[in-house]
Write a structure and sequence with these properties.
The protein has 392 residues and is α+β, with helices and mostly antiparallel strands. It is built from 4 helices and 22 strands.
Length: 392
């Protein structure tokens, strides 16, 4: 017969054995269920439209200083400051009286010289005739010809004096050299105008339509783009009008007109390492003003056969940028990559290190290590929403 102590001991052993069997069933799941899940994006080549943005500043397409070319009293200003003037319109009137007097004197001297020339020509003809008849010496003939030539030079000099006096008189009427918007006047009516230094500056005229927008690109950016063109990675449209420039104002609103790039400086600024470029925009209503700070965006270029991933998939290590890739066996691999441009949707184009079909991990990156086995889950939402590259 079993005593009470033996019965209690046997019961405890049976309960412990039963508990062990239950725990064994719970703590030994299948190996597949224990694998960590990661989201991946499968790389596929696509033609990605690129957009480049720069800080820029507006500048008048023509900016001219209006200066007095003769001195005198400023009698009148014929325009309203800050308004538009047309090329050739009269802006200022300088006292013409002294220059009219000088012109009259020059004309009188010209008339005198012309009279002397006519007399010298008459003397020359008479002397030449007498010389041929043998009644005048060769010396007399030469003196008459020399006097005629001297009078011809005097007439030319007097004519030049008349032209100069007429030009100075015309300069008393100051006209607009270009069409545009005038600045504040720098000399008020009644002032004595000089032609030297700032005393001769009367106003400025700025042409607003079209308007220039100046911006700079770094030397590295230009070299990178040039390298991609050489490698055939950038597609320039056949129609150059497809490459357009757009403007955004400081408050974020976009300018309604589009522009084009019309100048690239051939030299690099040594102090900044940048290259200056210029875009031109229609500005019929004068909405863009010189000196205005803007954001310039260039659209119309495409990156060919781009492999792009979300920016969070790219990490930085001691040897540069890298991504985690899942191979065919579900093993995590570290792949060093060379990053390129970003897409308008914020994805990062990988220029080197990955191939079409690679599965790049985009989640739980800090928990991963090379050599781990994971369960990849395709993330269709991470694909680049752009047009597919044409099949080769």
């Amino acid at each position: 017969m079993f005593n009470g102590r033996k019965i209690i001991t046997l019961t405890c052993l049976l309960l412990a054995l039963s508990a062990c069997k239950k725990n064994d069933g719970k703590e030994n799941p299948s190996p597949q269920a224990a694998l960590p899940e990661v989201h991946v994006v499968e790389l596929a080549p696509q033609d990605v439209p690129l957009s480049f943005e720069f800080a820029a500043r507006a500048q008048g397409s023509k900016e001219t200083e209006v200066r007095a070319r003769v001195g005198g009293i400023l009698l009148k200003r014929n325009y309203v400051e800050g308004t538009r003037v047309e090329e050739g319109s009269v802006l200022f009137q300088i006292d013409p009286a002294p220059y009219q007097v000088a012109l009259n004197q020059a004309k009188a001297q010209l008339a005198q010289a012309q009279a002397q020339l006519r007399n010298a020509e008459t003397q020359w003809k008479r002397t030449e005739k007498l010389f041929k008849q043998g009644y005048a010496s060769e010396k007399t003939r030469d003196e008459a010809r020399s006097n005629k030539d001297s009078m011809e030079a005097s007439v030319q000099l007097a004519q030049a004096e008349v032209d100069s006096a007429q030009l100075n008189l015309d300069y008393t009427t100051v006209k607009a050299p270009i069409s545009g918007i005038t600045s504040m006047e720098t000399q008020s009516e009644g002032s004595l105008i000089s032609v030297s230094g700032d005393a001769g500056l009367l106003t400025h005229i700025t042409q607003l339509d079209p308007i220039y927008v100046i911006f700079s690109a770094s030397e590295n950016d230009i070299l990178s783009l040039g390298n991609m063109v050489e490698r055939g990675l950038l597609k320039n449209p056949e129609n150059k009008s497809e490459v357009v420039a757009r403007l955004r104002f400081g408050n974020g609103t976009e300018y309604s007109e589009t522009g084009t790039i019309n100048f690239i400086n051939p030299t690099i600024d040594e102090s900044t390492g940048t290259i200056k470029l210029r875009a031109v925009f229609p500005n019929p209503r004068g909405k863009v003003r010189p000196g205005q700070f803007l954001r310039l965006v260039i659209d119309g270029v495409k990156r060919i056969n781009a492999l792009a991933v979300p920016q969070e998939a790219v990490m930085q290590g001691a040897n540069g940028a890298f991504v985690y890739r899942v191979n065919a066996g579900g093993i995590v691999e570290m792949v060093h990559v060379q990053t390129g441009l970003t897409t308008p949707d914020g994805l990062w184009i990988l220029d080197e290190g990955v191939d079409t079909g690679d599965r790049i991990i985009i989640s739980d990156l800090l928990k991963l290590r090379p050599g781990m086995q994971v369960k990849p889950i395709s993330d269709a939402a991470a694909k680049v929403p752009v047009e597919q590259a044409p099949a080769n």
